[in-house]
# Entry
Amino acid sequence: METGYWNFPDGEHFASSSSLYTQHYKKKAPTYESYNTVAAIIKDKSLSSKLAFLKMLAQEVELFLREFQTNTPLVPFLHTVSTTILSNIMERFVEILKAASPVNVVDVSKKENILSLKKIDLGFATRSELKKSNDTDLQILQFRSDCRKCLQKFVVKILERSPLAYGLTKAVTCFDLSIITANPTIATKWLETLLSTLVDARWLVGTTADKAA
# Structure
């Protein structure tokens, strides 16, 4: 199960049109590779379950991708939203996520950090499709294994490109009004971290930082 970007409309469109595509060419099947690929996928008895799982995964990140592809200054919310998305995905297959530990330090490749196959959360839609299938217990277990591998690769890929790797992302959260209101002490601490980072990088002179603090 590959983990390339797959949005919700893509899944809906593929599910509704793929069989029509192959039926159209049934009398004289074309020889090009894309047709052979789709024809092979259609024969997969677990297709509906796989599509349900991929659509669930796409929904986890699609709202974020839409909202943050904008010129609106949303950087103060980037750390909070990114952490929430990663936490939601990781909770589906990671053993324990400690609230005090950053999600980006959890090694999802280690066996001791992940749930057993029967305990991973596939989502309601996927479980519903699995119940409708005639898959054997062994096939369902293999499907769960594929889903867990997909989740692991998905998280690793996100972390590779995630702004959470940079301390500045968390520090700039000091401008989030909800943080300022709920916990001004934390907001002040992050502001100091932000100013210190900017001074160290020579993007801000110390005297200006003193005035801002």
The CA atoms of residues 67 and 74 lie 9 Å apart. The chain has two domains: 8-165, 167-213. The chain has a mean pLDDT of 84.
